[in-house]
Write a structure and sequence with these properties.
The protein is built from ten helices and eleven strands. It has helices at 4-15, 48-60, 71-80, 97-108, 121-130, 141-165, 168-172, 202-213, 221-228, 237-256; strands spanning 40-44, 64-68, 85-88, 111-116, 133-136, 175-178, 181-184, 189-191, 197-198, 264-268, 272-276. The protein is elongated and about 60 Å long. Residues 1-35 have low confidence and may be disordered.
């Protein structure tokens, strides 16, 4: 038998009621510990009753939550604000949550949890291609909070591990030295040793910067698709390969002018692409 948390959520979802007084059980949720305590969450849910329920529980658990009702509002918010995690419904009025998730991640590199009524195995598998977790409504609110904390812990550990592998300059500075080349993350410019800017498209710059910031770790094509999604809405796995080829040609052409080695993009079979420093 479902517990009271799940029953209340399911009833609110079915009836559309906005009375959430039953949330007096929220204090039973334990206070979050770091790194979750300072986390900011974007909630994308079109059902007002469900949105209020989830919002109330997350706030009671100590999170800073921004709630919106559609994909357009979600995109607008990530343009202005940073979020550690987004909880995204799949059946939104103006877009699929499956399509929205990689767009949000590409803009803010936030973790994603899908919260939806679509519970078939096919939907779950599809959702987990673009998200870190997948929950089916009705859900126990305590489980949702626990899943949020677990995803935040995983992403924090992954970020710490990646930062530990980065060169010091890449970890701290907006301008990264690549041998005699420079990558300016603020101006979004890659300059050769002579100071000439290599002309990269927005998507090409995003892809190259992601590889550099990974510190030599290989990045999978699926991840790179998310990186360039907002700049190239028609991107797919083949697009990444073509984009890498274009960047390689531009780097080689620029290197030929000052007669110095160029930054390199290497292919790692079965893993993706990685950055390599210019050869001396």
């Amino acid at each position: 038998m479902a517990n009271s948390n799940e029953i209340a959520f399911g009833a609110a979802q079915r009836s559309g009621q906005r009375d959430i007084a039953w949330l007096n059980i929220a204090p039973a949720v334990s206070s979050p510990s770091l790194p979750e305590a300072s986390a900011s969450i974007l909630l994308v849910e079109d059902d007002a009753a469900v949105r209020e329920v989830v919002l109330a529980f997350l706030v009671a658990a100590g999170f800073a939550v921004t709630a919106v009702a559609d994909a357009a509002s979600a995109r607008a918010r990530v343009e202005r604000d940073s979020f550690d995690l987004a909880i995204v419904d799949v059946n939104l009025p103006d877009a699929s949550g499956f399509a929205l998730a990689p767009q949000l991640r590409a803009r803010r590199d936030c973790a994603i949890i899908h919260l939806t009524s679509l519970g078939s195995t096919d939907y779950r598998l599809r959702g987990l291609e673009s998200a870190d977790d997948y929950l089916v409504k009705p859900v126990d609110m305590r489980e949702l909070v626990a899943r949020v904390k677990a995803v935040l812990r995983r992403t924090a550990r992954a970020a710490d591990a990646a930062a530990a592998r980065l060169p010091p300059a890449a970890a701290r500075l907006p301008v990264i030295e690549l041998g005699r080349w420079t990558l300016d993350l603020v101006r979004r410019e890659l300059a050769d040793p002579a100071g000439t800017v290599v002309r990269l498209t927005r998507a090409e710059f995003d892809l190259f910067a992601a590889l550099v910031q990974a510190g030599g770790l290989p990045l999978a094509r699926d991840y790179l698709l998310e990186v360039v999604a907002s700049a190239d809405s028609e991107s797919n796995a083949r697009t990444i390969d073509v984009m890498v080829s274009r960047i390689r040609r531009k780097l080689a052409a620029a290197a030929a002018v000052p007669a110095s080695g160029a930054p390199r993009i290497l292919t790692r079979q079965g893993e993706g692409y990685c950055y390599a420093a210019p050869e001396a």
